[in-house]
Amino acid sequence: MAKGDDQLSYARKHGENVAARKAKPLKRAVKIPVWGDLGIRLFAALFLIFFVVMIHWFDRDGLVDTVDGEVSFLDVVYFTMISITTTGFGDIYPVSDSARMIEAVIVTPIRFAVFFIFVGTAYNFIIKRSWENWRMARIQETLSEHVVVLGYGVSGSQSVEELIERGIDANCIVVVDPDEARLRDAEKLGVNVMAADATRDDTLKAVRIQEAQNVLVSAGRDDTSILIVLTVRHLAPRVPISVVVRANDNELLARQAGANNVINPVRFTGLLLAGSAKGAHISDYLADLASVSGRVQLVERVVTEDECGCAITELSTGGRGLRIYRNGRAIGFWEEECQNLEPGDVIVEIVPTENGTSKGDDPTPEGDGTDS
How many domains does the structure of the chain reveal? Predict the structure, then answer.
């Protein structure tokens, strides 16, 4: 345990050295950044004003200046601004039919457009965003049965995409990562995000970790991931935790820290490589099982009341039962206990996805040799 103690000690020291920023509130996914949105609005307003200035300048002979009798370019800019803002001091006014027609047909619609741009900007950046921040704060306070993803690197991002593919509502997923660039990528998927350090108690309390359905940890470093698991388990003793570790000797430490599932991507890659050496299609099938976008999918669920007393080959879903978990013990489909399912058994089965139903691997194939 000396090595584990050293790693955890380093992880805590590393966490304390991270800039201690206050946990930010959840953010709603936005298609355009704030400054981008503001820039587009400002550019549109300035373009319309410039357009009116040019029209007035080319038709300046239809304007009269009661002050000096001459309409200069500065006078045109001045007249455009008071015309668009409906101030109307009366020192410069249109007198020709063309000038009045321009004011009625062109300038008036542009006046309304500029007005709505500025009103919309005020609404979007003051009223709407204040309301949105308040609403997200309320959502944050009432989070429940959500999935918390701590770390949005390669593994974290792929897990979020897979969760959404499996039907999890993006609003029920919270991603925590200190990297703003990664969070911008996460926001594109519509999930809630928080820029903060996942090793801090305040951060985990802010995402209501104790109310989460599942916690997925992928911090990029084994020591940091194990520290996060320790912190999560301290705050949420009953929440299932899955963590990614890359060193074999850290798997035990992760389990001792409180992780329910420990995934080693290096080992899984080795299994795929070994499988491909023994059969050209084994690695392909394993990859299929791991993703809902494949033709088959692994599903874990609790046995239903109707299935109690049945064999594992007689599942109501039509899937292929592989094993059951009874009282913490794994039992294979070939063993005697699997011929009589009991209440509380957890079944691991293979079921077809939508792709599998249409392209093959269906447990109930249509071609059964009988006439229809």
Answer: 3
